[in-house]
Specification:
Layout lengths: L9 H9 L3 H21 L5 H8 L3 H7 L3 H26 L4 H15 L1 H9 L4 H4 L1 H21 L8 H17 L6 H12 L6
Helix pairs in contact: 2-3, 2-5, 3-4, 5-6, 5-7, 5-9, 6-9, 6-10, 6-11, 9-10, 10-11
Protein name: AcrR family transcriptional regulator
Pfam families: TetR_C_43 (PF21597), TetR_N (PF00440)
Keywords: DNA-binding, Transcription, Transcription regulation
Length: 202
């Protein structure tokens, strides 16, 4: 598997996607959602043609948007991060001091659901923080903002930093993988809760 995607700049890809016709954007979104679901439930071996069939589009549509499977892996991962950013923005608008826990739990769940994709990117020597630095930084900034709110409200330990929180999320992924709970939402949520409870004030 190549370590370089045909278009390594996600920002360029995003600008290109925004220039698509409305129907082409909808087809791309349908392919992304279908690919994410199939990768999570059936593994990475599912073919682009099968993804096209399940998405209800022609094979040419998938191959036009994602000429290589690595591009689809990367797009699925970036789409996941962008979805989390949207959730973070919604949570920020609520003013809830517990919102950081809601977001972190969702981050862990999304990471567990996309573990196969993340592993494939790692095997291909992709790091999302390098491949999509703006998106990754935006998510970290939202986590930091919600953490600041939680600090002010006293709902989280006053000595914990955003970097430590992000490290705990990564640790939760590893714990879920170690327990073989990637496809068991109940078990993965319990593991995440045990880890996140460590952020509560003593």
């Amino acid at each position: 598997m190549s370590s370089q995607p045909p278009d390594p700049d996600p920002a360029t890809a995003t600008r290109r996607d925004r220039g698509l016709r409305a129907d082409a954007r909808r087809n791309r979104e349908r392919v992304l959602r279908t690919a994410q679901r199939l990768f999570a439930t059936e593994g990475l071996g599912v073919s682009l043609d099968e993804i096209a069939r399940r998405a209800g589009v022609g094979p040419g549509t998938v191959h036009r948007h994602f000429p290589a499977k690595e591009e689809l892996y990367l797009a699925v991962a970036i789409d996941m991060l962008e979805g989390l950013i949207a959730e973070a923005e919604t949570l920020a608008a609520t003013g809830d001091p517990e919102a950081v826990f809601t977001l972190l739990a969702r981050m862990v769940a999304a990471g567990a659901e996309n573990e196969a994709v993340k592993s494939a990117l790692a095997a291909a020597e992709f790091d999302l923080r390098t491949a999509a630095p703006d998106v990754a930084a935006d998510l970290t900034r939202h986590v930091a903002d919600l953490l600041d709110r939680a600090h002010a409200a006293g709902t989280v330990r006053d000595d914990v930093t955003a970097d430590e929180v992000m490290a705990l999320v990564a640790g939760a992924f590893a714990a879920i993988r170690h327990a073989g709970a990637e496809t068991d939402q109940g078990r993965s949520a319990r593991i995440a809760q045990l880890i996140l409870d460590g952020l509560r004030p003593r």
